[in-house]
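To: structure desk
From: M.T.
Subject: fold request, one chain
Message: Could you run this one when you get a chance? Sequence is below, nothing fancy, just the single chain.
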Amino acid sequence: MVFFPLPLLLYAPIRQALPNSIRTKMFNWLKTKSDISIEFPEQANFYSPHTREALSFGLSNGIISITDTGLLKIQQSIDVQQDTDTEEVRDLKNKARFVGRWLALAGEDSTIYRMWGVQP
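Reply: Done. Structure tokens follow.
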């Protein structure tokens, strides 16, 4: 699921269309957002090199690790300067929390990939 956050968050049309509640079922939401489901595969492809680079950086610098079960684990947090906390950054942080929780509730990884029209 590591390839989902960047296109969901950094591509403004998708980020702005995300629901406000994790109670919104992903499948039902996507049925009403055909434009989003059409755009997502292209965005996922566009952001995948950035995701790979972020993973490589995090792993090589000991910021994250991969558990025996294949999950990512944060090893150390990174301090972010508070003066960079613009309205857009705050929105991205809130949406990132939402996306993490929403994806966790959406079902099996393979089902989520199919819903969004991409392959792992």
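Reply (cont.): The longest helix spans residues 34-60. Let me know if you need anything else for the meeting.
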